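Sequence and fold:
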Amino acid sequence: MDLPKGFLFSALSAGIKKESRLDLALIYSEVPARAAGVFTTNKIKAAPVILAEERLLSNKLQAILINSGNANACTGEEGLIAARETAAYVAKNLRISENLVITSSTGVIGIPLPKDKIINKIPFLVASLSPDGLSQVAEAILTTDTFKKVYAKRINIKGKEVTILAVAKGAGMIAPNMATMLAFALTDINIEKESLKEALKKAVSQTFNRITVDGDTSTNDSVIIMANSLAKNEMISYKDKEYKIFYEALEEIFDKLSFMIVKDGEGATKVVDIIVTGAKDEVQALKASKTVANSLLVKTALFGEDPNWGRIMAALGRSDIQIDPSRISISFDDIEIVSQGKGCGEKAEKKAHLVMKKDYFKIKINLNIGKAVSLIRTCDLTYDYVKINAEYRT
């Protein structure tokens, strides 16, 4: 795995999760980095989100302390104090300003953060920082996930090799408008701070904010980016042609990670792109694709490999957008099953059923009243999703 220059990683078990699983991680840049973040739109925000939003106003960051197994959400003033104290202890051990440290948490909501367990492990976490610790960090941030999610890419910026890497977690409670999903992007590019913020915001809007597993938005969703300039390229901004190269690489990485998150959706067996075209405007296209992607009846039909297009039509009809039923067409990959608002018959449905046996396919919906397009990535809803979430705290 390609690593950006100057980043170190460590992870260990602090006893937050059961069975001595890795549950505490540290990401550290050897020099202060320009930074930006995008956070949950849920009005109930976890303590680490509040702290991170506050500290990222400076657009500077050097370390991120991450725990899994406890969300530190709905924990009152004590939760915010715990986030500040654990961040301060990281800063003390790293000998950096505590304003350059944020925390991030994921796990069960409403249980006090076991800060003493975390603080006791921080010296060991700092002592074990290494370029080789990335895989352990990727594991330590997981909750109900079944696999680690990491992706990296190298690009050339003004004659210098630049690396962008991101690590993420997420499998349930995923319906971002920024869900729990966490993602941490690290790069050694030298980029102007406002351009970094703009790139992050746009890339998130086109990737992580276009996925759904269960329609729930978490209290803890966070996407953070750190750029430490150690590639030593001439500084770029959105005005430079190289900005496009950087942005496209960042969006590609986030797209790969968002696909992994949906693929790892709790109990999921299929990833499905819901693509709406021909909508009146982008807002209506997005509404239509989200309504179909979050429909429980559609998602269970995906699991059953049943091309029940009536459920898709019903979802479109309640999506509060402008439609003309007689103009709608629906295809599963390239198999058209609805034309001009009417079914194409049993033969078409049998072909669509074969498409649905794949672990990835597209449902294409053309409203045929405008030019706007939207894509939302979703998954099927299975017995295992219910089982996993019914047993989450037991």
